[in-house]
Amino acid sequence: MGSILVIDDDPHIRELVAALLDRAGFTSASAADGREALRALGEAQIDLCIVDAMMPNLDGVEFCRSARRYYPDLPLLMLTAKGQLGDKARGFDAGADDYLVKPFEGAELIMRVRALLRRYRKVMDATARAGRLTLDTSSHLATLDDVRIDLPLKEFDLLFLLAAHRGRTLTRDFIMDEVWGFDFEGNSRTLDVHINRLRDRFGEDAGFRIATVRGLGYRLEDLA
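Below the sequence we write its predicted structure tokens.
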């Protein structure tokens, strides 16, 4: 259902939230502060962050600001013990999508997590951009500026997946499962072949590149 990163300097809160997420069918990871969380984002596929506002080293507001800069498609749910309007405004200004005040009901937390994931996935499922390229799943159409590009089905699906998570490293296993399915009987060399075909098809003048992350997988990067 999704991997959620729980960011809080209180280990009891991290354990509580992780238990709620696990019971709801999510997988979870944890970080004790914003700096540790930013490292985690670079090392694993994270679908949403639950972040405490008050933490040492890098607090929740600064984390949201940094995460929004580098991971624009990452949902951010902020937790805080403060309920003042000014604190909420700082969180939203930093890029938080939603706000929940401690103490909170577990059911409300899960409802907000699911709502955020639905909201983001609805947008991501429709279109994705990679440099000058736009991919539209509703029409299965790729356009480079205003020029239509015909792509084989698997190349389209692979490129869309990378573009929808641009700037984030996707593991080989994750890509294979998403594009070819859990019951695919081939081998991972199939992925490499399709990546090379996309690289041959789109040079860097298209405004993006597909980077190899050794030992992990691939990441699509927009070029300035």
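The chain has a mean pLDDT of 87.
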